[in-house]
Design a protein that fits this description.
Number of helices: 22
Radius of gyration: 37 Å
Helix content: 40-55%
Mean pLDDT: 79
Number of strands: 23
Distance between the termini: 110 Å
CATH architecture of one domain: 2-Layer Sandwich
CATH superfamily of one domain: Histidine kinase-like ATPase, C-terminal domain
Largest sheet: 7 strands, mixed
Shape: extended
CATH topology of one domain: Heat Shock Protein 90
Strand content: 15-25%
Structural class: alpha+beta
Length: 707
């Protein structure tokens, strides 16, 4: 009996402890998350105010700029000796233009003025006998505003009886002689309606206050036109705070209808105030809902707490390791990007301060080298991000394997020559001439391995590349690529980290040899996608040998390959040289001015006639005006008004025969494969990646322009 009582007591204590722990967790979570939710609600409201403030300010400033332009026109008319009758006719034309449905001023009411003692109205309104324009707010405000555009308070229009705002400005000639005042009326309804409908919770609304604290917009129409000090509730308190320029953020106050509310206010450029009011019960409604959800879910969290703690601890340890690796990687990447940038900026300054052509040419050469290096770093980071996102895809095609190896060696030959290294490539006789695989990605892997071998092999060292056929299946080849060097080698411990993301074999490597440690990671992922493997055989100070095996398909059409190279391969080895494209017309579509300058400068020696369009819409219009004129179109992709994709589709859809055949080449920084495929589907013939190279541009021009 005593044991049972003791057992119940122990169980009761445990249940009580769990209950108290559960209750404490719910309460702590409630208050903690309440603060978070409250903070988020505040951020949301601040965001709404930011958006509203920007929209209203931009709306008003746009109208002010339009009016300033009209005022300048009238001052020119005055200076040129135009009489009032001619100015009245111009006022009528301006009114007709802005009252059109397509007008850029949807709130436009009318434009008018008091010129040379005569009231001129663009709508033909004739004021009553007792009307004195010089006593109206628009006239007095402009006269007392030192020649600047006057922005009036809302007032009742003498003609329509509606609430309006006015922009007005004195009209003077070149000698500052005063002729009168020009004004434009705008209906305030659209702005006030927009503000009134802003809210962050149920039953919330926006409020619009003039700089004289008159309510211009409110959900309660009875308050519109009333001073805040007369609106009831705690509005006088808010008015005092606005007058004293105090910040009103999440201010609790009683609304005019007695509702406990929360207020936010902002002041825009002309002294008007924009506010958002929300009943407090709805403002904190998410917190109340949160408490209910926490109460239901808390028990489930407690049951799985132990499991989650253990799992979280394991993941935390793993995350710490990855975070450390990524931090080291980011430090290397920062160094690798800042170093060439430092060279680019420094050499640019040196060249700018020098008048010696040889020194300037030397600086330009260094800038080019640093730019190429920086581009390589950026490409590696982008390639890795694409692999991590699972967007890298193989695009297999038949190609000549030996020609691919020769092209890869040409890329790295100049680096090998700089270090006087011995370099050889041996392709076994049994290796097929043509295979079916992803030529670009396979070239990238071999190039990465050769670049590493060159980097870590001393001057006068030796680099050997061998290609062997390991296995032949019905429709597959298993091919082995081996890259061997006599460099610094890699220890067994370092080899364990070599193919891990964001890792290098040794942290000192990046300091001594450069690099960000992504080349081998990218290579490993590519080879695995090709159904192959990559391994390393190395000892410290005794060189390294990377062995890559890939599974490739057999080339389908041997006869085509036996006849000669494909057009792409022929194009790759096409010499650039000097070519005369005199009489040929090219349409360059590029929205960035400096990019247009670069292309025009690069192609100046070709003597081609180049017309420039700043966006796709201009390109379509220029081509439609004279389709037979253009022999080639260079098309950027990302442009305002109309991008490259839409422009190409519009050109291809034109009825003229030339629209279907004119070569269109994308010239863009979008270089991923799916981007290029999208360009082809849109109707483009080819692609040039940015940053552009003259040799690449010339090759494309020779390919598509008949000389």
């Amino acid at each position: 009996m005593l044991k049972r009582i003791e057992l119940i007591k122990n169980n009761f204590q445990q249940v009580l402890f769990v209950f108290l722990a559960f209750l404490g967790m719910v309460l702590v979570s409630y208050f903690y998350v309440s603060n978070i939710v409250g903070s988020q609600m505040m951020h949301i409201c601040e965001g709404i105010l930011d958006t509203t403030q920007t929209a209203v300010s931009a709306d008003l400033l746009n109208r002010e700029l339009t009016f300033s332009g009209i005022s300048m026109t009238f001052e020119k008319m005055i200076s040129s000796g135009r009489n009032n009758e001619e100015m009245l006719q111009h006022l009528r034309e301006v009114n007709a233009f802005y009252l059109d449905e397509q007008s850029s001023l949807p709130d436009f009411m009318k434009i008018y003025g008091y010129i040379r003692g005569e009231f001129l109205d663009g709508l033909g309104w004739i004021p009553p006998d007792d009307y004195d324009a010089r006593t109206r707010p628009w006239y007095e405000g402009a006269v007392n505003n030192d020649g600047k555009v006057f922005f009036s308070e809302p007032y009742v229009d003498a003609q329509t009886g509606e609430q309006v705002i006015s922009f007005s400005q004195v009209i003077i000639d070149a000698s500052d002689y005063f002729y009168g005042v020009l004004a434009i009326d705008l209906n305030l309804t659209r702005i006030t309606d927009y503000i009134r409908h802003q809210s962050i919770a149920n039953n919330g609304y926006g409020i619009f206050i003039t700089n004289n604290l008159i309510i211009a917009s409110h959900s309660n129409s009875a308050l519109i036109g009333m001073s805040m000090n007369e609106a009831g509730g705690d509005y006088p308190l808010l008015a005092d705070m606005l007058m004293n320029h105090e910040s009103i953020t999440a201010k609790r106050f009683t609304d005019s209808n007695g509702v406990d509310s929360i207020a936010f206010f902002r002041t825009i450029f002309n002294g008007w105030h924009i506010g958002v009011i929300t009943p407090r019960i709805y403002y904190y409604n998410p917190v109340n809902n949160l408490a209910f959800v926490l109460g239901i879910m808390g028990f489930l969290f407690m049951v799985s707490l132990s499991y989650l703690l253990v799992k979280t601890r394991i993941e935390q340890m793993k995350s710490d390791e990855e975070s450390k690796s990524k931090s080291t990687f980011l430090a290397r990447m920062s160094h690798e990007m800042r170093t060439p940038m430092n060279a680019i900026i420094g050499m640019t300054q040196i060249a700018g301060n020098s008048s010696d052509p040889l020194r300037i040419r030397y600086c330009l050469g260094k800038i080019n080298d640093a730019s190429v290096h920086l581009l390589g770093v950026i490409n590696d980071v982008l390639e890795m991000s694409k692999i991590e996102a699972g967007k890298l895809e193989l695009i297999n095609a038949d190609f000549n394997l030996r020609e691919m190896m020769a092209a890869v060696s040409n890329v790295v030959n100049y680096k090998i020559d700089e270090k006087s290294q011995q370099f050889s490539i041996h392709v076994a006789e049994e290796v097929p001439a043509y295979i079916n695989s992803d030529k670009q990605l396979l070239s990238q892997v071999i190039s990465n391995l050769l670049t590493n071998a060159n980097k870590f092999t001393p001057i006068g060292g030796k680099i050997e590349v061998t290609v062997d056929l390991l296995q032949v299946n019905q429709d597959k080849y298993v091919i082995q690529f081996s890259v061997k060097d006599s460099g610094i080698g890699i220890s067994k411990e370092q080899q364990l980290r070599l193919f891990q993301s964001f890792e290098q074999a040794d942290g000192s490597i990046s300091r001594k040899y450069g690099g960000i440690g992504l080349g081998l990671v990218i290579s490993k992922r590519i080879i695995e996608m090709m159904g192959g493997t990559i391994r390393l055989e190395s000892e410290e100070d005794r060189g390294a040998r990377f062995v890559v095996t890939v599974t490739a398909g057999k080339a389908v059409n041997h006869s085509v390959h036996e006849q000669g190279r494909t057009s792409l391969e022929a194009e790759t080895e096409m010499p650039v040289g000097e070519f005369d494209f005199s009489g040929k017309h090219i349409l360059l579509t590029e929205d960035v001015e400096i990019n247009r300058e670069i292309i025009l400068s690069l192609l100046e020696s070709t003597h081609a006639v180049i017309d420039c369009a700043k966006n796709g819409m201009e390109a379509c219009e220029m081509f439609a005006c004279n389709p037979e004129k253009y022999d080639l179109i260079f098309m950027d992709i990302h442009m305002p008004e109309m991008d490259g994709y839409e422009a190409v589709r519009k050109i291809r859809a034109m009825e003229h025969d030339k629209a279907k055949t004119v070569p269109i080449i994308a010239m863009t920084a979008d270089v991923f494969r799916d981007d290029i495929e999208k360009m082809f589907k849109a109707g483009m013939n080819d692609h040039i990646g940015k940053p552009v190279e003259l040799s690449e541009i010339i090759r494309k021009m020779r390919k598509y322009i008949i000389l």
